[in-house]
């Protein structure tokens, strides 16, 4: 029995790509493509299958749930977007394309929502869960509440989710098993592989490595401007009944100090204006300013989160490292997926660092 199990394990092709539809496995593809990006929603896949018998498989239809696997490992879970059946003189073929669970958030409008003092969990419950996404993980130290969240008719669910996450410096993405994760990068995770390119060729495992930098979306100085509606979440000041006939009651108490920021921007109870936060990128060596307007913010802290997130995104878009490797897995057999950390050593580029 042990020998049979060993032979069965050897027969498993760890790099064979298959699509599971309705419990049936389709794996004899003539061509396939899998595109997965940590920062781009709705990862996509496409398959093309030749049918020598001329019979189209049953159950392969638009909207059907699917799993895309490489060997025994799931790389993407979602639904079929498009099915194309072609019959010509010399062949019969089937082409199938689809995306992961983020597709419905990108394509569909958010339910109308007007809520005060809404936490991120409540936004998820009212915007994401009604669209059929049930497996959700929230990785955040604290849940900051938005004083007011309002959706416009026709606004995409993904945009609402991004807005709720951006105010906390978080980012949403989907795992291969279809779980929606909201959090940030794990800088403590160990690299899954070391990619090497040396002039001598010793230990090389890279087919190619492209180092690309751009100035198009980089800025030396990013200013975020905002204003806030009136709300009553500031509990620093006590409110009470005042006797206007008494001069004593009109005196300002030392316990109700007004900060310089409040003098400049107004109080939360009456609405705030002129909220501003500035971040700078020291890697941009000449003056390239940018100003972004947030139409509504609860407080300066939320503006600060948004400004730092925007600057981090701008720096991220200004640099990319593109590596081509052989196969779908690392040398340890781990399947490649977005969000992993890798150690890159390249003598021609002068690189010896860890990247996501």
TrEMBL record:
<feature type="domain" description="Tail protein NMB1110-like C-terminal">
    <location>
        <begin position="313"/>
        <end position="356"/>
    </location>
</feature>
<dbReference type="InterPro" id="IPR054034">
    <property type="entry name" value="NMB1110-like_C"/>
</dbReference>
<dbReference type="InterPro" id="IPR026276">
    <property type="entry name" value="Baseplate_GpP"/>
</dbReference>
<dbReference type="InterPro" id="IPR053981">
    <property type="entry name" value="Gp44/GpP-like_2nd"/>
</dbReference>
<dbReference type="Pfam" id="PF21683">
    <property type="entry name" value="GpP-like_1st"/>
</dbReference>
<dbReference type="InterPro" id="IPR054482">
    <property type="entry name" value="NMB1110-like_3rd"/>
</dbReference>
<feature type="domain" description="Baseplate hub protein gp44-like N-terminal">
    <location>
        <begin position="16"/>
        <end position="100"/>
    </location>
</feature>
<dbReference type="InterPro" id="IPR049354">
    <property type="entry name" value="GpP-like_N"/>
</dbReference>
<feature type="domain" description="Baseplate hub protein gp44/GpP-like second">
    <location>
        <begin position="102"/>
        <end position="184"/>
    </location>
</feature>
<dbReference type="Pfam" id="PF22255">
    <property type="entry name" value="Gp44-like_2nd"/>
</dbReference>
<dbReference type="InterPro" id="IPR023399">
    <property type="entry name" value="Baseplate-like_2-layer_sand"/>
</dbReference>
<feature type="domain" description="Tail protein NMB1110-like third">
    <location>
        <begin position="269"/>
        <end position="311"/>
    </location>
</feature>
<feature type="region of interest" description="Disordered">
    <location>
        <begin position="250"/>
        <end position="269"/>
    </location>
</feature>
<dbReference type="Pfam" id="PF22630">
    <property type="entry name" value="NMB1110_3rd"/>
</dbReference>
<protein>
    <submittedName>
        <fullName>Mu-like prophage tail protein gpP</fullName>
    </submittedName>
</protein>
<dbReference type="Pfam" id="PF22174">
    <property type="entry name" value="NMB1110-like_C"/>
</dbReference>
